[in-house]
Amino acid sequence: LNMSKHFNVIFGKQEEVIVMNKTVNIENKFLLTFTEASRYFGIGENKLRNMASLEQNPDWLLYNGSRQLIKRVRLEEILLKSETI
User: Fold this and answer.
1) Burial of 74 (C-beta count, 10 Å sphere; 0-12/13-18/19+)
2) Cα angle, residue 78 at apex, residues 36 and 13 outer, rounded to 5°
3) Of 6, 34, 42, 66, which is most buried, counting CB atoms within 10 Å of its CB?
4) Are the beta carbons of 48 and 38 closer than 8 angstroms?
5) Which residues contact 19 (CB under 8 A, 6 or more apart)?
6) Terminal alpha carbon distance of the chain
C-alpha cells in the first residue's frame, strides 16, 4: 500500500481519507473533490460540475492549478438556503 497517495475508504456511511498514515473524516475536511462532495452532499457529481459551470467564478470553488476543489462549508451554507438545485 503506497501511502504517498490519497485513498478513499468507505465505512458504512462514513468516508475517511487516508493521507500519509493520517485518517481524516470527510466531514472534517475543508476542501473536497467533486467525488467526495457528491458522496457527502448526496448530489450527483455531474450536477455539482454543472452548478460550477453555470456560475462565473463561484465562491465555493477553489482552484489548485487547473484542479477544482469544493469549499465544503461554503457549499453547505448555499445548499441550506436553497430550495432547489
Assistant:
1) middle
2) 30
3) 34
4) yes
5) 3, 6
6) 39
